[in-house]
């Protein structure tokens, strides 16, 4: 396996990790919004 191929494989793996992290961040933000809404409802 060439050095270039190893670099490309590493780049692809890191790109996938970043995409998953971005997805998780959005999912967490939505969950936080839902929880804040529940808290406000319970505080009434």
Explain this structure to me?
With 44 residues, the chain is an all-alpha fold. The protein has one domain (1-44). It is built from one helix and no strands. The protein has one helix at residues 3-43. The longest helix is centred in the middle third of the chain and has 41 residues, at 3-43. The chain starts with a helix and ends with a helix. 0% of the residues are buried.
Q: Which terms summarize this structure?
A:
single chain; 1 helix; 93% helix; rod-shaped
Total DSSP E strands: 0
Beta strand %: under 5%
| End-to-end Cα distance | 63 Å
Q: Give the class from helix and strand content and strand pairing.
A: mainly alpha
Largest sheet: none
Count of all domains: 1
Regions with pLDDT < 50 over 5+ consecutive residues?
A: none
Helix content: over 70%
Q: How many DSSP H or I helices?
A: 1
Envelope shape: rod-shaped
Radius of gyration: 19 Å
Query: What is the string of helix and strand elements?
Result: H
Calculate the mean pLDDT score and round it. 97
């Amino acid at each position: 396996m060439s050095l270039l191929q190893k670099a490309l494989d590493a780049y692809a793996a890191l790109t996938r990790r970043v995409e998953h992290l971005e997805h998780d961040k959005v999912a967490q933000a939505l969950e936080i919004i839902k929880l804040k809404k529940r808290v406000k409802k319970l505080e009434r």
